Amino acid sequence: MLALVPLAVHAQPARLGLADALARADQRGYANRGATAGADAARANTLLPLKGILPTARVEAGYLRTTDPIGAFGTALRQRRIAQADFDPARLNFPAAVGNHAAALVIEQPIFNADAWVGRRATTRAADASIEVAAWSRGQTAAQVIRAWYGAVLAGAKADALGTALQSATAHVRQAQSMERNGLVTPSDAMLASVRAGEVEVMHLEAVAATRLARAGLATAIGTPEDTTFALPATLPSSQRLREIAEQVMAMGTTERADVRAARTGAAAAAADNERARALILPRVNSFARLDWNSPDLPFGGRNNWTVGLMASWSPFSGASELAERRATSSRASAARAMQDGAMAQAALEEAQSRSAVEVAMARLAIAERGVAQAVDAHRIVGRKYEGGLAAITELLDASTTEVQARLAEAAARYAVITALTDRLQATGNAPAWLSRLDTLP
To answer: In this structure, which topology does domain 58-111+282-315 adopt according to CATH?
Structure first.
Protein backbone atom coordinates (compact mmCIF):
# COMPACT_ATOMS: atom_id res chain seq x y z
CA MET A 1 0.00 0.00 0.00
CA LEU A 2 1.34 3.42 -0.91
CA ALA A 3 1.51 6.05 1.79
CA LEU A 4 1.09 9.64 0.70
CA VAL A 5 3.76 11.70 2.46
CA PRO A 6 3.30 15.45 2.23
CA LEU A 7 6.40 17.22 1.00
CA ALA A 8 7.50 20.27 2.94
CA VAL A 9 8.04 23.15 0.59
CA HIS A 10 10.49 25.75 1.83
CA ALA A 11 10.10 29.11 0.19
CA GLN A 12 13.35 30.58 -1.01
CA PRO A 13 14.16 33.95 0.58
CA ALA A 14 13.69 36.88 -1.74
CA ARG A 15 16.84 38.46 -3.12
CA LEU A 16 17.66 41.84 -1.62
CA GLY A 17 19.38 43.84 -4.32
CA LEU A 18 21.47 46.87 -3.50
CA ALA A 19 18.94 49.19 -5.15
CA ASP A 20 16.17 47.63 -3.05
CA ALA A 21 18.21 48.04 0.13
CA LEU A 22 18.88 51.70 -0.69
CA ALA A 23 15.19 52.33 -1.41
CA ARG A 24 14.16 50.78 1.91
CA ALA A 25 16.77 52.75 3.83
CA ASP A 26 15.69 55.98 2.17
CA GLN A 27 12.20 55.54 3.64
CA ARG A 28 12.88 53.59 6.83
CA GLY A 29 16.43 54.47 7.84
CA TYR A 30 16.51 55.90 11.34
CA ALA A 31 18.74 58.87 10.53
CA ASN A 32 16.69 59.67 7.42
CA ARG A 33 13.43 59.63 9.34
CA GLY A 34 14.85 61.90 12.01
CA ALA A 35 16.33 64.34 9.49
CA THR A 36 13.09 64.43 7.50
CA ALA A 37 11.12 65.19 10.66
CA GLY A 38 13.58 67.96 11.51
CA ALA A 39 13.17 69.47 8.05
CA ASP A 40 9.36 69.31 8.41
CA ALA A 41 9.60 71.10 11.76
CA ALA A 42 11.83 73.79 10.23
CA ARG A 43 9.36 74.31 7.39
CA ALA A 44 6.57 74.65 9.94
CA ASN A 45 8.57 77.37 11.72
CA THR A 46 8.45 79.50 8.59
CA LEU A 47 4.79 80.17 9.36
CA LEU A 48 5.47 81.74 12.77
CA PRO A 49 6.58 85.19 11.51
CA LEU A 50 3.38 85.48 9.48
CA LYS A 51 1.65 86.52 12.69
CA GLY A 52 3.25 89.92 12.21
CA ILE A 53 2.42 90.07 8.50
CA LEU A 54 -0.97 88.52 7.78
CA PRO A 55 -4.32 89.64 9.24
CA THR A 56 -5.86 87.81 12.16
CA ALA A 57 -9.53 87.35 12.97
CA ARG A 58 -11.09 86.23 16.21
CA VAL A 59 -14.49 85.93 17.84
CA GLU A 60 -15.03 86.95 21.45
CA ALA A 61 -17.97 86.11 23.72
CA GLY A 62 -18.56 86.39 27.45
CA TYR A 63 -21.06 87.08 30.17
CA LEU A 64 -20.86 89.29 33.25
CA ARG A 65 -23.16 90.47 36.00
CA THR A 66 -22.28 93.42 38.17
CA THR A 67 -23.52 95.99 40.72
CA ASP A 68 -20.51 98.23 40.18
CA PRO A 69 -21.95 101.74 39.56
CA ILE A 70 -19.77 102.54 36.57
CA GLY A 71 -20.01 99.00 35.22
CA ALA A 72 -23.78 98.86 35.60
CA PHE A 73 -24.35 102.25 33.92
CA GLY A 74 -21.86 101.46 31.14
CA THR A 75 -23.46 98.06 30.53
CA ALA A 76 -26.91 99.60 30.23
CA LEU A 77 -25.52 102.24 27.90
CA ARG A 78 -23.86 99.60 25.71
CA GLN A 79 -27.20 97.75 25.61
CA ARG A 80 -28.79 101.04 24.44
CA ARG A 81 -31.49 101.03 27.10
CA ILE A 82 -30.66 104.17 29.11
CA ALA A 83 -33.71 106.15 30.11
CA GLN A 84 -34.21 109.46 32.00
CA ALA A 85 -34.88 107.54 35.20
CA ASP A 86 -31.44 105.95 35.03
CA PHE A 87 -29.90 109.34 35.92
CA ASP A 88 -31.55 109.31 39.34
CA PRO A 89 -28.63 109.67 41.81
CA ALA A 90 -29.96 106.85 43.96
CA ARG A 91 -30.02 104.45 40.99
CA LEU A 92 -26.60 105.66 39.86
CA ASN A 93 -25.07 105.14 43.29
CA PHE A 94 -26.86 101.90 44.14
CA PRO A 95 -27.74 100.19 40.85
CA ALA A 96 -29.47 96.84 40.67
CA ALA A 97 -27.44 93.94 39.36
CA VAL A 98 -27.06 94.10 35.59
CA GLY A 99 -26.22 91.13 33.32
CA ASN A 100 -24.63 91.39 29.90
CA HIS A 101 -23.83 89.00 27.04
CA ALA A 102 -20.83 90.59 25.32
CA ALA A 103 -19.68 89.37 21.90
CA ALA A 104 -17.33 90.76 19.29
CA LEU A 105 -15.77 90.07 15.92
CA VAL A 106 -12.21 91.45 15.77
CA ILE A 107 -9.91 91.76 12.75
CA GLU A 108 -6.32 92.94 13.13
CA GLN A 109 -4.08 93.85 10.20
CA PRO A 110 -0.35 94.41 10.74
CA ILE A 111 0.92 97.26 8.62
CA PHE A 112 4.60 97.52 9.44
CA ASN A 113 6.53 95.04 11.60
CA ALA A 114 10.05 94.91 10.24
CA ASP A 115 11.17 92.08 12.52
CA ALA A 116 8.39 89.84 11.17
CA TRP A 117 9.40 90.37 7.55
CA VAL A 118 13.08 89.78 8.25
CA GLY A 119 12.21 86.88 10.54
CA ARG A 120 10.26 85.29 7.72
CA ARG A 121 13.36 85.39 5.56
CA ALA A 122 15.48 83.94 8.37
CA THR A 123 13.14 81.02 9.04
CA THR A 124 12.82 80.28 5.33
CA ARG A 125 16.58 80.03 4.96
CA ALA A 126 16.79 77.92 8.11
CA ALA A 127 14.22 75.57 6.58
CA ASP A 128 16.30 75.38 3.40
CA ALA A 129 19.32 74.48 5.53
CA SER A 130 17.34 71.72 7.24
CA ILE A 131 16.34 70.32 3.86
CA GLU A 132 20.01 70.19 2.86
CA VAL A 133 20.86 68.51 6.17
CA ALA A 134 18.24 65.87 5.38
CA ALA A 135 19.73 65.41 1.91
CA TRP A 136 23.20 64.94 3.40
CA SER A 137 21.76 62.47 5.90
CA ARG A 138 20.22 60.46 3.07
CA GLY A 139 23.59 60.37 1.33
CA GLN A 140 25.33 59.20 4.49
CA THR A 141 22.69 56.54 5.01
CA ALA A 142 23.12 55.36 1.43
CA ALA A 143 26.88 55.10 1.96
CA GLN A 144 26.30 53.16 5.17
CA VAL A 145 23.93 50.77 3.40
CA ILE A 146 26.41 50.19 0.57
CA ARG A 147 29.14 49.32 3.06
CA ALA A 148 26.77 47.10 5.04
CA TRP A 149 25.34 45.38 1.95
CA TYR A 150 28.72 44.56 0.45
CA GLY A 151 30.06 43.84 3.93
CA ALA A 152 27.41 41.16 4.31
CA VAL A 153 28.29 39.81 0.84
CA LEU A 154 31.96 39.77 1.83
CA ALA A 155 31.20 37.98 5.10
CA GLY A 156 29.19 35.34 3.24
CA ALA A 157 31.94 34.89 0.65
CA LYS A 158 34.51 34.54 3.42
CA ALA A 159 32.39 31.88 5.12
CA ASP A 160 32.04 30.03 1.81
CA ALA A 161 35.79 30.22 1.15
CA LEU A 162 36.57 28.90 4.60
CA GLY A 163 33.97 26.18 4.07
CA THR A 164 35.82 25.14 0.94
CA ALA A 165 39.11 25.35 2.82
CA LEU A 166 37.66 23.13 5.54
CA GLN A 167 36.68 20.55 2.94
CA SER A 168 40.20 20.72 1.51
CA ALA A 169 41.74 20.38 4.98
CA THR A 170 39.51 17.41 5.72
CA ALA A 171 40.62 15.84 2.44
CA HIS A 172 44.26 16.41 3.44
CA VAL A 173 43.55 14.66 6.74
CA ARG A 174 42.10 11.66 4.95
CA GLN A 175 45.03 11.62 2.55
CA ALA A 176 47.55 11.75 5.40
CA GLN A 177 45.75 8.99 7.26
CA SER A 178 45.72 6.82 4.15
CA MET A 179 49.40 7.41 3.52
CA GLU A 180 50.12 6.65 7.19
CA ARG A 181 48.36 3.29 6.87
CA ASN A 182 50.47 2.54 3.82
CA GLY A 183 53.62 3.47 5.69
CA LEU A 184 54.40 6.44 3.44
CA VAL A 185 54.27 9.09 6.21
CA THR A 186 54.67 9.15 9.95
CA PRO A 187 51.73 9.33 12.39
CA SER A 188 52.74 12.89 13.19
CA ASP A 189 51.76 13.96 9.67
CA ALA A 190 48.20 12.73 10.20
CA MET A 191 48.02 14.40 13.60
CA LEU A 192 49.33 17.72 12.25
CA ALA A 193 46.80 17.60 9.44
CA SER A 194 44.01 17.01 11.95
CA VAL A 195 45.18 19.93 14.10
CA ARG A 196 45.27 22.28 11.12
CA ALA A 197 41.85 21.10 10.02
CA GLY A 198 40.52 21.95 13.48
CA GLU A 199 41.97 25.45 13.19
CA VAL A 200 40.25 25.93 9.82
CA GLU A 201 36.99 24.65 11.30
CA VAL A 202 37.16 27.25 14.07
CA MET A 203 37.82 29.96 11.49
CA HIS A 204 34.83 28.76 9.50
CA LEU A 205 32.57 28.86 12.56
CA GLU A 206 33.73 32.41 13.32
CA ALA A 207 33.05 33.42 9.71
CA VAL A 208 29.53 31.97 9.82
CA ALA A 209 28.83 33.92 13.04
CA ALA A 210 30.27 37.08 11.46
CA THR A 211 27.96 36.56 8.49
CA ARG A 212 24.92 36.51 10.75
CA LEU A 213 26.06 39.70 12.44
CA ALA A 214 26.76 41.38 9.09
CA ARG A 215 23.27 40.55 7.87
CA ALA A 216 21.80 41.90 11.11
CA GLY A 217 23.84 45.07 10.65
CA LEU A 218 22.51 45.46 7.12
CA ALA A 219 18.94 44.94 8.29
CA THR A 220 19.45 47.62 10.95
CA ALA A 221 20.97 50.03 8.45
CA ILE A 222 17.91 49.81 6.20
CA GLY A 223 15.55 50.25 9.16
CA THR A 224 14.13 46.71 9.31
CA PRO A 225 16.21 44.99 12.01
CA GLU A 226 13.66 42.21 12.45
CA ASP A 227 14.02 41.03 8.83
CA THR A 228 17.25 39.18 8.01
CA THR A 229 15.72 36.52 5.77
CA PHE A 230 16.97 37.83 2.46
CA ALA A 231 19.26 36.42 -0.19
CA LEU A 232 22.44 38.20 -1.22
CA PRO A 233 24.93 37.60 -4.05
CA ALA A 234 27.47 34.87 -3.36
CA THR A 235 30.48 36.97 -4.38
CA LEU A 236 31.60 40.54 -4.69
CA PRO A 237 31.78 42.20 -8.12
CA SER A 238 34.72 41.05 -10.21
CA SER A 239 37.93 43.04 -10.36
CA GLN A 240 37.26 43.92 -14.00
CA ARG A 241 33.82 45.33 -13.16
CA LEU A 242 35.31 47.33 -10.30
CA ARG A 243 37.95 48.82 -12.60
CA GLU A 244 35.29 49.87 -15.10
CA ILE A 245 33.18 51.48 -12.39
CA ALA A 246 36.20 53.13 -10.79
CA GLU A 247 37.14 54.72 -14.10
CA GLN A 248 33.65 56.21 -14.41
CA VAL A 249 33.59 57.44 -10.81
CA MET A 250 36.98 59.14 -11.10
CA ALA A 251 35.81 60.87 -14.31
CA MET A 252 32.85 62.47 -12.53
CA GLY A 253 32.95 66.15 -11.76
CA THR A 254 32.74 67.71 -8.32
CA THR A 255 29.51 69.42 -7.26
CA GLU A 256 28.67 71.34 -4.10
CA ARG A 257 27.95 68.85 -1.36
CA ALA A 258 24.70 68.93 0.60
CA ASP A 259 26.52 69.53 3.90
CA VAL A 260 28.30 72.53 2.37
CA ARG A 261 24.99 73.85 1.04
CA ALA A 262 23.48 73.34 4.48
CA ALA A 263 26.31 75.28 6.12
CA ARG A 264 26.09 78.09 3.56
CA THR A 265 22.31 78.37 3.87
CA GLY A 266 22.58 78.14 7.65
CA ALA A 267 25.01 81.08 7.62
CA ALA A 268 22.54 83.07 5.52
CA ALA A 269 19.76 82.19 7.98
CA ALA A 270 21.88 83.29 10.94
CA ALA A 271 22.71 86.58 9.20
CA ALA A 272 19.00 87.19 8.54
CA ASP A 273 18.18 86.39 12.15
CA ASN A 274 20.75 88.99 13.22
CA GLU A 275 18.96 91.53 11.01
CA ARG A 276 15.68 90.54 12.68
CA ALA A 277 17.17 91.29 16.08
CA ARG A 278 18.28 94.73 14.85
CA ALA A 279 14.77 95.38 13.55
CA LEU A 280 13.29 94.94 17.02
CA ILE A 281 13.97 98.59 17.86
CA LEU A 282 12.07 99.90 14.82
CA PRO A 283 8.56 101.35 15.26
CA ARG A 284 5.52 99.13 14.69
CA VAL A 285 2.26 100.11 13.02
CA ASN A 286 -0.85 97.93 13.26
CA SER A 287 -4.57 98.45 12.57
CA PHE A 288 -7.72 96.82 13.84
CA ALA A 289 -11.48 96.76 13.30
CA ARG A 290 -14.15 95.29 15.55
CA LEU A 291 -17.90 94.81 15.83
CA ASP A 292 -19.36 94.57 19.35
CA TRP A 293 -22.72 93.24 20.56
CA ASN A 294 -24.10 93.73 24.07
CA SER A 295 -27.37 92.16 25.16
CA PRO A 296 -29.00 91.25 28.48
CA ASP A 297 -30.61 88.20 26.86
CA LEU A 298 -28.30 86.34 24.46
CA PRO A 299 -24.88 86.51 22.73
CA PHE A 300 -24.75 88.56 19.55
CA GLY A 301 -28.09 90.07 20.46
CA GLY A 302 -29.13 93.69 20.16
CA ARG A 303 -27.65 96.32 17.91
CA ASN A 304 -23.93 96.25 17.16
CA ASN A 305 -21.39 99.04 17.20
CA TRP A 306 -18.10 99.25 15.33
CA THR A 307 -14.64 100.53 16.11
CA VAL A 308 -11.63 100.97 13.84
CA GLY A 309 -8.22 102.12 14.85
CA LEU A 310 -4.57 102.51 14.01
CA MET A 311 -1.85 101.89 16.58
CA ALA A 312 1.79 102.95 16.34
CA SER A 313 4.31 101.93 18.98
CA TRP A 314 8.02 102.35 19.48
CA SER A 315 10.18 100.82 22.17
CA PRO A 316 13.70 102.16 21.70
CA PHE A 317 14.77 100.57 24.98
CA SER A 318 13.31 97.49 26.65
CA GLY A 319 15.51 96.95 29.64
CA ALA A 320 18.51 95.89 27.50
CA SER A 321 16.74 92.73 26.29
CA GLU A 322 17.02 93.86 22.67
CA LEU A 323 20.74 94.47 23.15
CA ALA A 324 21.19 90.96 24.52
CA GLU A 325 19.36 89.45 21.56
CA ARG A 326 21.38 91.47 19.06
CA ARG A 327 24.63 90.31 20.62
CA ALA A 328 23.44 86.69 20.76
CA THR A 329 22.31 86.65 17.12
CA SER A 330 25.53 88.35 16.04
CA SER A 331 27.55 85.66 17.79
CA ARG A 332 25.43 82.92 16.21
CA ALA A 333 25.98 84.50 12.79
CA SER A 334 29.75 84.49 13.35
CA ALA A 335 29.60 80.85 14.42
CA ALA A 336 27.56 79.95 11.33
CA ARG A 337 30.11 81.65 9.07
CA ALA A 338 32.88 79.69 10.77
CA MET A 339 30.92 76.47 10.24
CA GLN A 340 30.49 77.35 6.58
CA ASP A 341 34.22 77.93 6.15
CA GLY A 342 34.95 74.70 8.02
CA ALA A 343 32.51 72.70 5.89
CA MET A 344 34.10 74.00 2.68
CA ALA A 345 37.60 73.22 3.93
CA GLN A 346 36.57 69.75 5.10
CA ALA A 347 34.93 69.04 1.75
CA ALA A 348 38.12 69.97 -0.10
CA LEU A 349 40.19 67.78 2.23
CA GLU A 350 37.87 64.79 1.86
CA GLU A 351 37.88 65.17 -1.92
CA ALA A 352 41.68 64.90 -1.96
CA GLN A 353 41.64 62.02 0.54
CA SER A 354 39.05 60.09 -1.47
CA ARG A 355 41.12 60.36 -4.66
CA SER A 356 44.15 58.98 -2.87
CA ALA A 357 42.09 56.24 -1.22
CA VAL A 358 40.75 55.02 -4.58
CA GLU A 359 44.25 54.95 -6.06
CA VAL A 360 45.59 52.98 -3.09
CA ALA A 361 42.64 50.57 -3.14
CA MET A 362 43.09 49.86 -6.84
CA ALA A 363 46.82 49.21 -6.35
CA ARG A 364 46.05 46.95 -3.42
CA LEU A 365 43.59 45.00 -5.56
CA ALA A 366 46.20 44.44 -8.27
CA ILE A 367 48.70 43.19 -5.69
CA ALA A 368 46.07 40.91 -4.13
CA GLU A 369 45.26 39.40 -7.54
CA ARG A 370 48.91 38.56 -8.11
CA GLY A 371 49.05 37.08 -4.64
CA VAL A 372 46.12 34.74 -5.40
CA ALA A 373 47.73 33.53 -8.63
CA GLN A 374 51.03 32.88 -6.90
CA ALA A 375 49.39 31.16 -3.92
CA VAL A 376 47.38 28.85 -6.20
CA ASP A 377 50.51 27.85 -8.13
CA ALA A 378 52.48 27.34 -4.92
CA HIS A 379 49.74 25.15 -3.45
CA ARG A 380 49.60 23.06 -6.63
CA ILE A 381 53.37 22.56 -6.68
CA VAL A 382 53.59 21.63 -2.99
CA GLY A 383 50.64 19.22 -3.44
CA ARG A 384 52.51 17.35 -6.18
CA LYS A 385 55.69 17.27 -4.12
CA TYR A 386 53.76 15.88 -1.14
CA GLU A 387 52.17 13.17 -3.29
CA GLY A 388 55.66 12.22 -4.43
CA GLY A 389 56.98 12.13 -0.89
CA LEU A 390 59.19 15.18 -1.43
CA ALA A 391 57.37 17.55 0.98
CA ALA A 392 56.15 17.34 4.54
CA ILE A 393 52.50 17.63 5.49
CA THR A 394 53.24 20.94 7.19
CA GLU A 395 54.38 22.40 3.85
CA LEU A 396 51.17 21.26 2.18
CA LEU A 397 49.00 22.66 4.96
CA ASP A 398 50.91 25.95 4.95
CA ALA A 399 50.46 26.22 1.19
CA SER A 400 46.72 25.54 1.53
CA THR A 401 46.39 28.15 4.29
CA THR A 402 48.33 30.68 2.24
CA GLU A 403 45.99 30.19 -0.71
CA VAL A 404 42.92 30.69 1.48
CA GLN A 405 44.43 33.80 3.04
CA ALA A 406 45.31 35.16 -0.40
CA ARG A 407 41.76 34.65 -1.65
CA LEU A 408 40.34 36.31 1.44
CA ALA A 409 42.77 39.21 1.04
CA GLU A 410 41.72 39.60 -2.58
CA ALA A 411 38.04 39.70 -1.57
CA ALA A 412 38.86 42.26 1.13
CA ALA A 413 40.72 44.32 -1.49
CA ARG A 414 37.65 44.33 -3.73
CA TYR A 415 35.52 45.45 -0.78
CA ALA A 416 38.06 48.20 -0.05
CA VAL A 417 37.65 49.44 -3.63
CA ILE A 418 33.88 49.59 -3.19
CA THR A 419 34.12 51.55 0.06
CA ALA A 420 36.71 53.89 -1.45
CA LEU A 421 34.43 54.56 -4.43
CA THR A 422 31.53 55.16 -2.04
CA ASP A 423 33.58 57.73 -0.14
CA ARG A 424 34.68 59.29 -3.42
CA LEU A 425 31.13 59.81 -4.61
CA GLN A 426 30.12 61.32 -1.30
CA ALA A 427 33.20 63.54 -1.13
CA THR A 428 32.58 64.97 -4.60
CA GLY A 429 28.91 65.70 -3.99
CA ASN A 430 27.62 62.82 -6.09
CA ALA A 431 25.07 60.28 -4.89
CA PRO A 432 26.60 57.12 -3.40
CA ALA A 433 23.48 55.27 -4.61
CA TRP A 434 25.00 55.53 -8.10
CA LEU A 435 26.97 52.42 -7.16
CA SER A 436 23.79 50.33 -7.25
CA ARG A 437 24.67 49.64 -10.89
CA LEU A 438 27.46 47.43 -9.56
CA ASP A 439 24.75 44.95 -8.66
CA THR A 440 23.23 44.97 -12.15
CA LEU A 441 26.18 45.04 -14.55
CA PRO A 442 26.73 41.79 -16.51
So the answer is: Outer membrane efflux proteins (OEP) (2.20.200)
